[in-house]
Target: thiopurine S-methyltransferase
Amino acid sequence: SDAGSQKDRVVTEEEWLEKWEMGNIGFHKEEGHPLLQKYLDVLLNGKNGLRIFFPLCGKAVEMKWLADMGHSVVGVEISEQAVKDFFSEHGLPYCEEPVPEISGAKMFQSTSGNISLYCCSIYDLSSSIVGKFDGVWDRGALVAVNPCDRQRYASLMISLVEKNSSYLLVTVSYDPNKHKGPPFYVPESEIKSLFG
Ligand code: SAH
Model:
């Protein structure tokens, strides 16, 4: 099937903020994702102390999980409510500071230092601000990006990863003519052309 009926759909940042305000966050899961458990070895490659990136992170519980394993987690999320909820729901003390390179952005960091969540649009980030990552957990991220922004998103993600990194991507398979998304349907062929 083709993604034609979804390609012009746009969800604005305001609409995402509103979803958080209204508690309309069916995408959030309290249980760690089974596919992360299944492919954890692929992500970590037997290494310790990796830098793992969570694009469009929401309040994903897997961030706490990987941090507890000794990795350093960086996320980006436009909703400040989501970021604050993440820390408070896990009982993690944090501090917040402005991000000098991005006007209006804030960085929330656990006091222990191993979880840093940027509250801004992902499109404001670059490797000069956040560095490069050894691993990426992309669940509810590429599929949440507006179809018209996919190329920009993929190019940015490629610029944020180290040469020997692992990128775990979760997509959803369904008939795009029956649902408007998000999550959007991203065909396998498009993933290949976006990421190579
Ligand atoms: N990955 C998370 C959340 C998925 S929903 C999980 O697995 O639970 C997508 C999230 O992206 C929402 O929380 C939304 O607020 C956020 N978001 C949408 N557009 C964004 C953007 N341009 N930059 C950063 N975050 C964004």
